[in-house]
Amino acid sequence: MEIVYKHIKNGYARIDKEGKLLITLPIRKKWTEFENIMIEKGQKLLNRYNKHTHISAVQEHRILLFGEEVPLKEFYEQYNKKIPSSSDLLPSATKILKKILEEYSAPLFDIYSKKLWIPYQKLIFRKTSSKRGSCTHDQKLSLNLDLIHLPTKYIKYVIIHEACHLKEKNHSKKFRALVESFCPDYKQTKKELKKFVIK
Q1: How far is CA 143 from CA 15, 37, 46, 122, in A?
Q2: Average pLDDT, the chain
Q3: How many whole angstroms separate alpha carbon 180 and alpha carbon 161?
Q4: Helices (H), the chain
Q5: CB contact at 8 A, 160 and 179
Q6: Which domains does the chain have, with CATH numbers?
Q7: Considering the entire predicted model, what is its pTM?
Q8: Is 121 exposed, middle or buried (0-12, 13-18, 19+ CB in 10 A)?
Q9: How many alpha carbons fall within 13 Å on the CB side of residue 88?
Q10: Least confident of 120-124, 126-130, 154-158
Q11: pLDDT in tens, 55-101
């Protein structure tokens, strides 16, 4: 834990990229009860952070693909691309990752769509901060691009979940039964998936 004092009005706590707790406090409140309150809040934040499995999607020499580490050189060479500078790693990889996720997920969406006898209109891939996927009322499906970094077990579950929304738009008992018919262990898979944080 690191405490920093600044000329600010209010204090705040955050977790840095390395998982370290950083607390910033107003200088005027140094050595007061407020400091103890902020440390306590920061500790709670750190405890919540540590309950999750944090995944670093792209690093200097490798990228995480379907839960497996792939050397960046191999990743880019496969698509006839040069390895970009470290600051451009993720932006330059996005187009390739979209293509890979589409190649994996589109056939599965086709399978479940046919089983449900309901076609989907469009398949979209984008990076979002919260949702793993979505299905609109006009049958457009989307997947969070971050899924590409997780093992296929979790991607398949999200695909099934969203495909079932083609038929059942809410999370009713009927919907859950439909998901379970395609993914019998969905409850455990969903629980595990919630623990992942991709950075």
Answers
A1: 27, 40, 29, 11
A2: 85
A3: 9
A4: 33-50, 72-77, 89-116, 152-164, 173-182, 186-193
A5: yes
A6: 2-51 (no CATH), 62-198 (3.30.2010.10)
A7: 0.74
A8: exposed
A9: 8
A10: 126-130
A11: 677 776 788 899 888 888 888 887 766 666 655 555 667 888 999 99
